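Query structure, 236 tokens:
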């Protein structure tokens, strides 16, 4: 199969990769919703929202950027990081804040595809190239400015507390993943920083230079930009 021309219907669960900036921005959306009593009621009725009493936002963000750690350690299997917490809703009862963030990551992966498919995103030229990775990198770039305290995230990720995840991730790998993320999050994503970030991971399906070129091409597609912007509006 030609990686560049693979459409969404040909994606495999192993190949689809998340956008790290975006997951943090979507967590921010959830935090904002939790401060709105009317929104809380809507989410309880439609998304089974239930937040634990000892909810910790920092631990939640740590969890919501955790699952793609498998990209730097071949021993970590996707089934262990991504096939968990069924059903995928906003019910975080009986979960730690880290686990709640982890579940939220998986929820966002699912919800993102629902939103984009609803708008026919993958019918647009180039959106399915390289298993959809360029569109996710572009999503990171577009959403970066929505979050206004990256310095705190970078500092936190540069010195994360080790959390036992139950899937065999050791402390060294755990710290390395968040150090890589901290470097990526230092500034608004550019072709150069995207390239460096991808180079730290294995299993990227395609030439990195061509992936970045596709990101630049998608920037010129007004419809694609509009649809990507809808994700943050509709993620929850």
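Result returned for the query:
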């Amino acid at each position: 199969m030609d990686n560049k021309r693979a459409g969404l219907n040909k994606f495999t669960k192993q190949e689809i990769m998340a956008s790290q900036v975006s997951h943090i921005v979507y967590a921010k959306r959830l935090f904002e919703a939790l401060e709105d009593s009317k929104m809380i009621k809507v989410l309880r009725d439609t998304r089974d929202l239930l937040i634990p009493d000892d909810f910790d936002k920092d631990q939640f963000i740590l969890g919501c950027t955790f699952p793609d750690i498998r990209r730097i350690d071949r021993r970590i299997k996707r089934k262990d990081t991504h096939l968990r917490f069924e059903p995928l809703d906003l019910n975080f009862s009986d979960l730690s804040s880290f686990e709640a963030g982890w579940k939220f990551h998986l929820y966002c992966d699912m919800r993102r595809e629902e939103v984009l498919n609803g708008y026919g995103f993958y019918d647009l030229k180039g959106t399915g190239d390289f298993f959809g990775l360029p569109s996710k990198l572009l999503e990171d770039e577009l959403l970066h400015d929505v979050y206004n305290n990256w310095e705190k995230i970078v500092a936190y990720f540069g010195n994360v507390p080790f959390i036992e995840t139950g899937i065999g991730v050791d402390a060294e790998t755990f710290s390395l993943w968040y150090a890589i993320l901290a470097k990526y999050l230092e500034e608004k994503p550019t072709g150069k920083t995207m390239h460096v970030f991808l180079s730290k991971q294995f299993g990227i399906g395609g030439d990195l230079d061509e992936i970045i070129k596709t990101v630049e091409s998608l920037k010129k597609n007004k419809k694609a930009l509009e649809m990507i912007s809808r994700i943050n509006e509709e993620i929850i």
